[in-house]
Amino acid sequence: MIDQSMRKQLPRVLTLVFIVMVCSSASLMAAEALEQLDARLYGYPNSYWLAPAGTAGAWAVLAVLGIFCVGPLFLNAKRTHLD
Asked: Is the whole model's pTM more than 0.90, yes or no?
């Protein structure tokens, strides 16, 4: 249970964390807006095309998700969280 002193401190701490997050995100957004430069000034071409992508990444993600989904089926059903 939360004791009385924690009940007083929790709203203060959450308010402080919220203020810090808002201020830091606003300053980061302002810094990003100033750093946007035009690539043409550095001699890069006007357009660039990426090579066509393969499907290896999608198959790898499918395999990992398959292991996560099918893996628990092979666990012992008689085990409980009380072991």
From this structure: no
